[in-house]
Amino acid sequence: MPITPSVPQRPFSILRHGDTRVDPYYWLMDRDNPEVLKHLRAENDYLSASLASLAPLEAQLFDEIKRRIEETDISVPIRRGAWWYFERTREGLNYPISCRVPVNASDPTPPIVDPLVQFTGEQVILDENIEAAGHDFLSVGVLDVSPNDQWVAVGVDFDGDERHHVTIRSLNGAPPLPDALDDVYYGFAWSSDSEYVFYLRVDDAMRPWQVWRHKLGSSPDEDVLLHQEDDAQFTVSVGRSRDDEVIVVPIASSTTTEVRYLPAGEPTESLRILEVRRPGVEYGVEHLVDQRGVRWWLKITNDEATDFRLLGRRAADEEWRELIVHRPGTRIDGVDAFTTCLALSEREDGCATVRIIPLDPDAPFDSDLLARSWRVDGVDDPSTVALGANPTYGVDHLRVSMTSMVTPNLIADVNLETHELLVRKQQIVRGGYDPDAYVTGRHWVNASDGQRIPVSIVARRDVVHRDDDGTITPIGPAPLLLYGYGSYEISIDPGFSSIRLSLLDRGMIFAIAHVRGGGEMGRSWYEMGKLAQKPTTFSDFVAVARDLVTGGWTEPRRLAIRGGSAGGLLMGAAMNLAPDLFRCVVAEVPFVDALTTMLDSSLPLTVGEWEEWGDPAASPSVYRTMKSYSPYDNVRATNDDGSPRVYPHLFAAGGLNDSRVGFWEPAKWVLRLRDANADNLAYLKTEMGAGHGGPSGRYDAWHDEALILAFLINEVGA
User: Fold this and answer.
1) pLDDT per residue over 631-684, tens digit each?
2) Peptide bond preceding 382: is omega within 30 degrees of 0, i.e. cis?
3) Domains along the sequence of the chain with CATH
4) CA 655/CA 40 separation, integer angstroms
5) Chain-centre distance for alpha carbon 465
6) Residues contacting residue 219 through CB under 8 Å, at least 6 positions apart
7) Catalytic residues, which ones?
8) 157, 426, 441, 576: least buried by Cβ within 10 Å?
9) Tens digits of per-residue pLDDT, 386-423?
10) Buried b / exposed e across 403-417, counting CB within 10 Å, b at 16+?
11) What is the pTM of this model?
């Protein structure tokens, strides 16, 4: 057996509110310490040696993953102005190739989707494979073509730290510009005349806090700071409205919004405030020029509306009026405005959908919008319908995407007049995938307080039975992987994964626990799983797992759980609450040292997270709550009866350059689990050249996933 890695304990005392915690591995936070890097490499070697016997299964799984995917492929072209934009992937290449082709004036329909056809006049905008040459990691965080179609802004990150180097490249053979912008965050916009760009920079805590304006051809030293947000709980973003009229700068905390803007045709103007921030009031806006040339602002807001309502006003007016009333239980996630219609992204009964509202050319907002609206139906129950990329402002079709846990992702154009769907492409699953061989459905679990928690399930038809009324029941206990997240009002929507078939075809059940703290069931679902009520997220997940065992779906020895980031916190908390309930755990970039991180305001994201978790430095009650569930602080050597506590087998993963969850969190956690009991089996894999998202190339990501799947299959005996 390989020797388990260890490092010296160097106790560090953390005193808050009269309580002292001693952290023996606090020193591992120093990424410049050679001893730390040596330990992380030793953990990687230990993982490789320990799981070496799984190499044949891992290779088989990688081959299965690769064989199901159409490696040489093309996305459905999206029209913007005089061009169709699309992506190509080619067999053997890690990264996509972004392309465009001129619109045929005599036939303005999208080009036929054929990955083997080279279109006449096709132009490569960016080949990420060329960009990545000589680098172990590549992320393109900015890729934005100018309004005059002559330039493209490209922002690349070679480390995974989410700081991008942006250059402006010619698309018409002109000499390259010397412009180079460093430390640029996500978010970018062009002025109407293609002479100026707007971009973001982050502070030392990785908070996007500044909006800058750069004039093409000038030195970055001459760039103008348009806005600096000094309140550390707020972040800024920047973009351009779909109608190309406005540069929009949302400024937001977790609970409060303020929007500033300037006309895209007047790029040297100062930002104007649309509506000042009011504590607890969130809103999102769209700018619309109707068919009569009248300018409108549209706004979705939680002001007097828990699940949001839609308001609107003429740009020349001051007073908002209600266009869509608050409908408790139907969450409005967003509004997208087009010349001929509005598209509302909604969430009802735990599923995402799209509602389309036709606009009267003469009086777009003078009648009951809800009465004349209609919804795009999903493909299964449960399923996910989302608005696709629709950069063109004047449309007679809307692009949507649809999927379920048995239906590969489908891209379609919705005819706004007839409501018919024109399927442009459906995800190809090579190897003869038969959706009828699998079943999906929604299972409901009662939490301890009576709330019903939705669980989305998929399995092979000989493992799970579905009645005509949609009820699903297990045919017998089977290996099961339960996934969870449950934070930030983020919804884990049911969708298809060809990679998941390697589990299903081995008889495993896959389930998603839509626990509170997420957004699946509306804003109140989120509020019941945050701040002082955060422990509800963890008890919900354990309640789901227990129900799946008592209901005959699985057994503890065949039950695996998985989550990442805040979902990794969920994994750690669930392990502490019910260590005997699970066989194994996969926790990717897990936020498991939550209390120590939230006490350190110098760390990335901490201050902005106080509205999600609370500020334990300022509040003794918040401190006590976080200490009660922080996974690292609650690892125990014994159970209540004094018997040794043995935890589920753990596969934890981190990224050395992760700017969201420090690499030291999983590293410290694994060591503490081993210290608690020598029988605790815990592995750590650290990406030494990547960040929060893991490896960047698709083949590298598939190799990583094959290893995790091999671990899971081996553990639960699938």
Assistant:
1) 999 999 999 999 999 999 999 999 999 999 999 999 999 999 999 999 999 999
2) yes
3) 12-66+432-690+698-716 (3.40.50.1820)
4) 10
5) 31
6) none
7) 565, 658, 692
8) 426
9) 999 988 877 889 999 999 999 999 999 999 999 999 99
10) bbbbbbbbbbbbebe
11) 0.96
